[in-house]
Amino acid sequence: MIPRGLEHRRVNSPTAVILVTLALAWLALIIGAPLATVVVEAFGKGLDAFLAAFREPDALASIRLTLLVAAIAVPLNAAFGLAAAWSIARFEFRGKAALLTLIDLPLSMSPVVAGLVWVLLFGARGWFGPLLEVAGVKVIFAVPGIILGTILVTVPLIARELIPLMTEQGADEELAATTLGAGGWTVFRRVTLPNIRWALLHGVLLCNARAMGEFGAVSVVSGHIRGLTETLPLHVEALYNDYDFVGAFSAATLLAGLAVVTLVAKTVLEQLIRAGQAVKPAQELAIP
Amino acid sequence: MVALDAAFAPAPLKPARRSWREHSALPGFGGAFGFTLLYVGLIILLPLAALAARPWEHGLGGVVDAILQPRTLAALRLSFLAAAGAAVVNVLTGLLIAWVLTRYDFPGRGVVDALVDLPFALPTAVAGIALATLYSPGGWIGSLLQPVGLKVAYTPVGVFVALLAVGLPFVVRAVQPVLEDLDASLEEAAQTLGARPLQTFSRVILPALTPALLTGFALAFARGAGEYGSVIFIAGNMPGVSEIAPLVIVTRLEGYDYAGAASVGLAMLAVSLIVLVAVNSIQVALSRRGSR
Questions:
Q1: Do A83 and B35 touch (CB under 8 A)?
Q2: Which position among A65, B103, B145, B148 has the lowest Cβ density within 10 Å, counted as fewest Cβ atoms?
């Protein structure tokens, strides 16, 4: 047994007490206080005022649009993540590093730039703007633009979960299944998917949280038309700028609740993933 | 003749024509790779091409003018300085929090660990209006700071304060796994040899953490420089004073100045990428020195 005296000591020394107190105080100030503000401001004028914020047709329309955008963006990015992970983690080809860099690029992009690029393409003076006008299709200041902005901001989130995991797992199990005569689809469904399901769900969770909460990219392409092109975060902004603070924080509570639920689910999933990794070597050892 | 010679030549052990990809027994490369390329092309490459091409519509002079305009320059300076300052603070606080989470057992450690990720999950607009309320003269923290004469909301300091939350999880999540895997015997050896705790930390632990701290700094910086939602509510957005670079892009777009907006966007992306690449090469250099 390795001496583990240095790990997870109980908080007994004065240094430990000071360090833990400092860390908790900082987190309370930086993360706890804003979260508490949202709840207090939302419920400060009573439950009725809170609920009234959700009787507004514009609020309901913004919730519907947010759900619609996530329902399109998340499955597309999940399909992309699976396809990218299958080709990158299971095959050797030239230009793989460049492809990985490109997939990561949106992470270092300002959300506003992620909205800007779509305006440069499809806006009134964009490359394809005149073409779209002739065809009578509206992308910018309309729902398609909101979806495109959201997709660009969230595109790496699922792929980045799957690629390292599948690379680490290796292709042995899939090769064995293929050699035994299983078709591609069967291998994917019966071998790959069970091995990556928690990581996939983890990625979907993060992607969904970001897609529903995205503000910068969506703000640039939305046009802020109430009841039509306002997602829930944009609705929060509009109410706040109208000095309807109770309404703004009530709508914000919904988004903050989504964030907290996401964090809880994410923590549970991470424990499942860790348990899965711990089980693996034991199973292999059991084979004589 | 040449064809016949080739036909009768002994079969080469390796395929003569090296393919751009290695053969694999697994199926499905074509479909998966094709979809991946199509998606990357439409969602990442095409928009990137527009961002790279549109600034030059009025030539190099147009780009230089767009970026060197005093208002834009002030906004770029504020975004990057505030992001750098906040990332430095994040390195310190992130290290402290990662240390406490990996080394000490205290009630509620699991909840605190999960809470660190809140800035990842909390929509930026929500964080933005909460921070603006919190630090406004009538808010919980703002009312405490006012007697001291410290103004945070609607000043450049507000931008910095907002970025303290945005960058924190990047540093904690970069450092935490390294701290967990750190070989305890090294620390024990240092202590046995008579090193004081602070010496052990600065000579043994800190060098091992440097690459992770650099990664955390770079990610926090890149994210902070481009941050929009958590900042605009608290910043006050006074042109030349508390206006951030992303807001300049929004303003330019509202005036249909696509080339000007794209110039600022391209400059921001370039600086973020340069910092990420620079940090990457420092890490490569560090690991070379370490392995020698």
A1: yes
A2: B148
The per-residue pLDDT for range B200-257, each reduced to its tens digit, is 888 889 998 999 999 999 999 999 999 999 999 999 899 989 999 999 999 999 999 9
**ipTM for the complex?**
0.90
Query: CA distances (Å), B87 to each of A238, B64, B213, B273, in order?
Result: 30, 28, 10, 16
Question: What residues make up the domain containing A243?
Answer: 46-286
pLDDT digits (tens, 9 = 90+) for A92-102: 999 999 999 99
Pick A263's closest partner by Cβ from B104, B117, B223: B117
Tokens 């004028």 sit at which residue? Answer: A45
pLDDT in tens, B3-34: 545 455 555 555 545 678 888 888 889 999 99
Instruction: Express each pLDDT in A142-167 by its tens digit.
Output: 999 999 999 999 999 999 999 999 99
Residue B207 makes CB contacts below 8 A (sequence gap 6+) with none
Contacts of A192 (CB under 8 A, 6+ apart): A86, A166, A174
Tokens 């199990």 -> residue: A173
B34–chain A nearest CA distance, Å: 9
Higher pLDDT, B221 or A8: B221
Which numeric CATH code is attached to B59-291? 1.10.3720.10
Rounded Cα distance between B65 and B281, Å, is 32
Q: Which residues have C-beta within 8 Å of that of residue B125, sequence separation ≥ 6?
A: A213, A215, A233, A234, A236, A237, A252, A255, B229, B230, B233
Q: Which of A1, A20, A192, A196 to mutate to test the interface with B (most CBs of B within 10 A)?
A: A20
Contact A84, A166 (CB under 8 A): no
Does residue A28 sit in the same domain as residue A153?
no
Angle (CA) B88-B94-B96 rounded to 5° is: 115
Rounded to whole angstroms, how far apart are CA atoms B220 and B243? 20
**Rounded to whole angstroms, how far apart are CA atoms B143 and B141?**
5
Interface of B with A in 143-172 (CB under 8 A): 164-165, 168
CA B157 to chain centre: 20
DSSP-based three-state secondary structure for B104: strand
Domain boundaries in chain B?
A: 59-291
Q: Is the pLDDT of residue A276 over 90?
A: no
Query: C-alpha A3: how far from its chain's center?
Result: 40
DSSP code at position B12: P
Interchain contact A127–B (C-beta under 8 A): yes
- Answer yes or no: do A35 and A95 share one domain: no
Is residue A94 located within the same domain as residue A35? no
CB within 8 A of B267, min separation 6: which ones? B67, B76
Q: Write the residue in B36, B125, B165 that is nearest to A215 by C-beta.
A: B125
